Amino acid sequence: MNQARKALVAICCLASGVTSAAVEVTTNGFLTAGTTMIDEPDATFNSFIKDRVGFEYDSRMGLRFSAQINPQLEFAAQLLSRARLEGWDVKADWAFASYKLNDHVSVRAGSVRIPLYLASEYVEVGYAYPWVRPPAEVYRLTPVNATTGVSVPLKANLGGMDLLVQPMAGSLGTTIQSRGLEIDIVAENMVGGSIDLSNDILRLHAAYLSAKVFADTQASVPLFVAPSLGPVTGDLGITLLDSSNYQAWDVGMSVDWKNILLMTEYTHTHSWVPLDDQFGWYATLGYKMGNFLPYVTYAERRSDDIVNDPSTFANEAFLLASFAQDQNSMTLGLRYNIGNASALKFEVQQASTQGDTCGFIDGAGPGVCSGDFPLNGSYNMYSVAYDVVF
Fold first, then answer.
1. CA distance 97 to 76
2. What end-to-end distance do the CA atoms of the chain give, in Å?
3. What contacts 24+ positions apart, CB below 8 Å, involve 156-165?
4. Nearest to 62 by CA among 86, 32, 98, 34
5. Nearest-CA neighbor of 99 among 71, 138, 125?
6. What confidence tens digit (pLDDT) does each residue in 196-238 have?
7. Would you give the DSSP letter of residue 135?
8. In CATH, what number does 3-151+168-180+252-389 get?
C-alpha cells in the first residue's frame, strides 16, 4: 500500500466520533513541526528560510471535521494553522457539502480542493509523502490549493484499478508570499479537473486547469537613476496579470512496489503575458528498509520569455525580473517511521540557480539577489521535520 493511502487510512482509524441529534461528527488531525535553514548569510529562501534555524516555513497543524447529515449528505472542513514569526495564523483551508447521487457520483459545493498535483489532496499532511515538503520546483508553480465552486468526483473500477475523475469549476481570491512580496491574486472562470488511475502499487495522474487571473502587489521599484546615488526607489502598486488567460497542466506517477518507491511529476503553466511559459519536474527514488526510507530527489524549474533585463527600469520589467526562478536541486533524505502514525525526516538539499536568476532565493532588485547571493549561484538547505496524524 502506498504512503498516501497509509496516511489516509491512519487518519480515518484515529478519527473520533461524536453523535449529536442523530448526526455523527468525526474529527482527526495532523501536525508538522519542522525546522529549516540555508547556508547563505543574509539571503532568504521563499520569503521565510534564512541562515538561521527557523520553524516558520514548514510547521503547521490541521484539524479535519466531517458530519454525516444523512446517507446522501455530508459536510467536511479542514482548519489549517501555520507558524509565523508573529504567531500562528488559522484559516479554513477548505469546507464543502457533498451530496452522494449514487455509489459512483457525488457533487461537492463550497471551498473544494483543486486536484492539480499528485499530492494536492493531502499536500498539507506531511506524513502522507516521503519528503519534508513537496518539491518547490513543481508545487510552487501554481501555489493555490482550493477554489470556491463545485466539483463532481466520479469513481469506477476498471479491471482491478480504481478510476477517479474530478471535474471542477470555481473562482478564488487569495494572497501568496513570493520572493519577499505579498501578491494578491483573483482567479475567475476557473475550470479544470483530474484523472487518476490507481491500485496498491501504481498511481497515474493527469490534470488541467484554466482561469482568468488578476494579480497585483505593492513593491519598492526603481523610479529613476541618480548619477551619484544610483537607482532611486519608491513604493508603487504594480499589476502583474490583468485578465490573463492562465493554464496549467500536470502529469505524475507514483510506484510503491515491494521496497521500492518511485515518484515523478511534470507540470507546465502558460499565462500568455507577462509570465508566459514555466515548467518544472522532479523524480524521487527511495528504498524501504524496515522503518527507514532513504531517498533521493532531483528537480528542475525553468521559465521562458519572462522579462528579465536588469538594465530596464520599467516597473513591470523590474518586478518580473524577480519572477524567473530557474534552478536545479538534488536532495538526499531519510524518513524514519515511528509507529503507525508519525515519522521523523531529515533532508540535505543542494541547489544551483540557472538562467541568470536567483532561483528561489528572494530578489533584491533587477538582477540582484538578497544577501549578495550571486546570479547562477548555489546554496545548501538543511531540513528536519516531525510529522504525525491523530
1. 6
2. 20
3. 156/104, 158/197, 160/199, 161/197, 161/198, 161/199, 162/196, 162/197, 162/198, 162/199, 163/195, 163/196, 163/197, 164/194, 164/195, 164/196, 164/197, 164/198, 165/193, 165/194, 165/195, 165/196
4. 32
5. 71
6. 999 999 999 999 999 998 877 665 544 434 444 444 444 545 5
7. -
8. 2.40.160.10
Instruction: Provide Rg for the chain, Cα atoms.
Output: 22
* pLDDT tens digit sequence for 125-156: 999 999 999 999 999 888 888 999 999 999 99
Q: Which of 283, 281, 287, 282 is nearest to 261 (CA)?
A: 287
Q: Which three cell numbers stand for residue 175?
A: 494572497
| Omega before residue 274 within 30° of 0, cis | yes
Q: What is the Cα–Cα distance from 140 to 144, expressed in whole angstroms?
A: 8
Q: Are 210 and 191 in contact (CB under 8 A)?
A: yes
Nearest to 373 by CA among 130, 41, 139, 19: 41
The CA-atom distances, in angstroms, between 38 and each of 203, 327, 343 are 34, 15, 23
